[in-house]
Amino acid sequence: MQLHWFNDLWTGTEQRMDYSISGMRGFGRDNTILDIKRVGDFPMPLEIKVTMDSGDERMVYVPTDLTVLPKSGSFEYTETWPWTDREKEVVIPIPVGNIVKVEIDPDGWMADINPDNNVWPKEEKAKDED
Asked: Which residues contact 125 (CB under 8 A, 6 or more apart)?
């Protein structure tokens, strides 16, 4: 695997990592399109957890064209996301009506500077009462 990108992005830079879910919509009868966006400058492959109304969960892996080696675990793979593109439509083979939650980086491994925009539907934070 060539790792020039790793050296360029991880050392000597102030680039930030930030991804968001910008929308979700049905695609045909059995699929959902998830609109994801790279808000920051740092390209990363994404792990996405999809929770269905049945309680079942599926993991989706969105590789970049910089990192294309197979991922261990039970992931459904999407098309490769070119690192130069800011936005990506990810097709998930689950009807949109069956999805109750979608989350980028559910285990919190990425150094995402704004994890609040990684979840659909957007979770509301409890307000402190003084």
From this structure: 116
Write the pLDDT tens digit of every residue in 29-80. 999 999 999 999 888 899 999 999 999 999 999 998 877 667 777 888 888 8
Nearest by Cα to 90 from 39, 23, 44, 16: 23
Three-class secondary structure of residue 94 per DSSP: coil
Biggest CA-to-CA distance, the chain: 54
Edge-to-edge order in the sheet of strand 76-77: 76-77, 57-62, 46-52, 99-104, 119-120
Q: How far is the C-alpha of 127 from the C-alpha of 130, rounded, in Å?
A: 9
Query: Are the CB atoms for 84 and 26 separated by under 8 Å?
Result: no
Can you give the length of the chain in residues? 130
- Radius of gyration over alpha carbons of the chain, in Å? 16
| Amino acid found at 128 | D
